[in-house]
Amino acid sequence: MKSYNSSIVTKQGLKQLIENILAHKYRLLAPKKSGEQLSFETILRAEEVVLNQLLRTMTTLSPKEVFFPRTEPVLRYTGQEMHDVEPPTPETVLFGIRPCDARGLELLDKVFTWDYNDKFYLKRREATTIVTFACSDQASVDEHCFCLGVGGDPTASSGSDLLLSTNGDDAFLLEVITEKGERLLNSCKEGVELQASDKRAADQLEAIKDRFVRKQDLTEVRHKMPEYFDSDQLVQETYRCLGCGICAMSCPTCHCFDIVDEPKAGTLGEGARVKNWDACSFALFTKHAGGHNPRELQCQRCRQRYFHKLAYYPQKFSEESLCVGCGRCSRSCPVGLDIYQAVTHVLGKGRA
Length: 352
Ligand code: SF4
Ligand code: SF4
Fold this sequence. Notes:
Layout lengths: L4 E6 H13 L3 E8 L2 E6 L8 H6 L14 E8 L2 E4 L7 E6 L1 H14 L6 H8 L1 E6 L28 E5 L4 E6 L2 H10 L6 E3 L7 H5 L22 H7 L7 H5 L6 E7 L6 E8 L20 H19 L11 H5 L6 H11 L3
Parallel strand pairs: 2-6, 6-7, 7-8
Antiparallel strand pairs: 1-9, 1-10, 2-3, 4-5, 4-12, 8-9, 11-12
Helix pairs in contact: 1-5, 7-9, 7-11
The structure holds iron/sulfur cluster (2 copies).
């Protein structure tokens, strides 16, 4: 990945950049306060971007729904006639995602271009410029984060167009990563003081690494996992699963969906074919029309999710796992289940 240049920008300069993005009529999406949590929302005024908080708190849900909405029509029908649906694709700036989320989008790209080019996802990707905040602040990393164990890095630029990292109390390092990022910066930098710098966010990695309590390397577990497929330890680690699905909903890389036809109420033969998020944690996900469910137990569904992340995706697409170590699933799980802990416990104990 080519890195073009880097500059220092003050907090005030960054606010000006955000104002310019809005003034240039981009749709701006950024983490916004929603009670005690942060969620990606449309920003109308620069003050809505909570710079200090977004460095310290990860959004509860990932930004995947900017590209892959939880529900959307993919076709409309009237009687025998089918009508294509074009996804709305305004020029968008997605601001303040984490490096793990940016990397997650690159993993999703492989899925949505694998046997079929999903125009809904791809057009939104094309229309979106990604401004990432590196986890360069000491408070950015918590006890759930484990990107280092799955081939990530808290200051990585992969998947980003522009990369921001802290540079002292009142300033940021701004790195241009792609031509798309350069175009955005060039079109929105009027009035923004940029001081050239030869620093890199990665320069600060060593100090941030010490913040991680989860450092075990999971990049090779795909070779060992098949041996544990029906082990008692894995059942013990996963039997508490309730099947609520919040792990998959909050995950930046879970991408299962279902397609259903939804007739329009009060009409005859009119309706839409709709793509909805689904999850392997749900009992109905694999239930056959005849009533048989090959994943009869909840712990088997949980196992499927772990295997898809750490064994099946790496086997199918690349050596990389489908987990980017963001920790959202373990932060959100109502019964404290945790993919990192489950896999490290099971593999650490040996086969029983
Ligand atoms: S692992 Fe936790 S979050 Fe995921 S479905 Fe089971 S109970 Fe819900
Ligand atoms: S499986 Fe959990 S830790 Fe891994 S990317 Fe998904 S939400 Fe993040």
